[in-house]
Input
Amino acid sequence: MALPVLRSRLAPTPSGYLHLGNVFSFLLTWLLVRREGGELLLRIDDIDADRKRPEYLADIFDTLHWLQLPYDQGPKDAADFETNWSQHLRIPQYEAALQQLRETPGALFACTCSRAQLVQSGSAAYPGTCAEKHLPFETPEAALRLFVAPDTTVSFTDAVAGTVVYPLGKNTGSFVVRRRNGLPAYQLASLCDDLHFGINAVVRGEDLIGSTAQQLYLAQYLQEPDFAKALFVHHPLLHDEHGLKLSKSEGALALRTLRANGHTPGFVYSWFARVAKISSTPVTSLAELQDAFSDYAVSKLQTISDLR
Output
């Protein structure tokens, strides 16, 4: 029986200019998919409209074009994205998933806790404040949370870290699947999109292991056990000169700054090959990077202690 085609995605958020940390994830995903003869989707996560800016959306396409990274499915430019690919066009699918959860006894509860109240509680995980209040789902300005018992753990296999046992109840607790403004939360939208597009390989930074655990837990409630069979790759994070995790910015490590300063894509390819320990010699083209990646074990990323 033929094995399923590997399908992965690039999933940037148009909430800032892309930086080298984003590109590390992009290149790793692209190389892995191309090595396995798979398919790649460009999925731009714009459900949080308050943080979205036209210049950030344009920067995604500018960066992919500059890096010469073709993809197999997704918008060709910003106009095509807005017309045909925005997450807001898939809200009916997210609502269908929420309705399924509403109809599952004990799955959801309404929560009126504000962000300030949760910070004041001093708990790393949601403290369960509204879990036993049995508020109607239609309560004004209430979020909907998926119930997570305090002792809940989620286990999965990661291509870099090996077996991961994540204490979901302790670290996260019951998490939001519909925000107070009525829009679906990131975890629900991301999972629904991965299911909709047939994604079976998820490449993320190691800071998103908790998100993977939440989505695996949510997939059980949505009766989607095949999501747990996906290939998960959580790579180390890129840090700045102060050892802090990069965030989207207009600084020296933003791709738009590198482009403006005259750097070529070859500069980024060589940087990636060096920090990922793929090649000790300079790499000047994407084809050379593909050749160097052909027999590369992704688990080797675990040995990287500093991506600066």
